[in-house]
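Side project, low priority. Logging it here so it doesn't get lost.
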Amino acid sequence: MREQVERKRNYPRATLDVAARYLTQEGNQRAAATGNISTGGVLLIAEDPQVMPHDEIHVSLQPPGLEQPIESSARVVWMSDRPLIGDTIVFGFGVQFLDLGEADFYTLALLVEKLTRAPADAPGPF
């Protein structure tokens, strides 16, 4: 299967709502949730992000079915300028993975493939 997956920037995204943590440039540990994910990056949702576009952070998330978290340095590429969820003050920001390891890349590729398939076709380890 690894030979069939190409590493490319515009890999498909899948909706994924799991807890995540990230470390800001200032060394602050922050909690977030994911909104969607691809092998290129992830949408993070947080109450008080404490990040700005171009900041480099360290991201850790634990998709279901995995023993080890997926971790990578990441660059903030965009931020919402208004709350995402009605009256709840949460902001979304997209990050691009900078040093996602090969094993994590293929794990995410398989997870995204599974999440974007119809439920009837969705056997697999996740």
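Brief comment: The domain at 2-116 is CATH 2.40.10.220 (Thrombin, subunit H).
Revisit when time allows.
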